[in-house]
Write a structure and sequence with these properties.
Layout lengths: L2 E6 L4 E5 L17 E6 H44 L1
Antiparallel strand pairs: 1-2, 1-3
Bound molecules: zinc ion.
Zinc ion binds next to loops.
Length: 85
């Protein structure tokens, strides 16, 4: 069953589960039926999830590069220390 987001003339927006038997809903704030259907929440949410996942991957790549640089720095430091002793 699709969930849609609606905006009422009063400015209230709300999610509504659309059942095939009842096509119309009413505003949860004022009870009015002058509501306008907005974009499907499902598609909006998956778009947000996709861009968030892309950001996570970029952040993870940055973190991995930093970790590798740290490990390399530690290795070089340990190496030169071994030679000093
Ligand atoms: Zn309303």
């Amino acid at each position: 069953m699709p969930i849609y987001e609606y905006r009422c003339g009063c400015g209230h927006t709300f999610e509504l589960l659309v059942r095939p038997s009842s096509q119309t809903g009413a505003c949860l704030a004022c009870g009015g039926s002058e509501i306008e259907r907005l974009l499907s929440l499902h598609s909006v949410r998956s778009d947000q999830t996709r861009s968030r996942a892309a950001r996570d991957i970029r952040a993870r790549n940055r973190a991995t590069r930093t970790d590798q640089a740290d490990a390399e720095a530690r290795r070089i430091k340990a190496h030169s220390r071994d030679h000093d002793e």
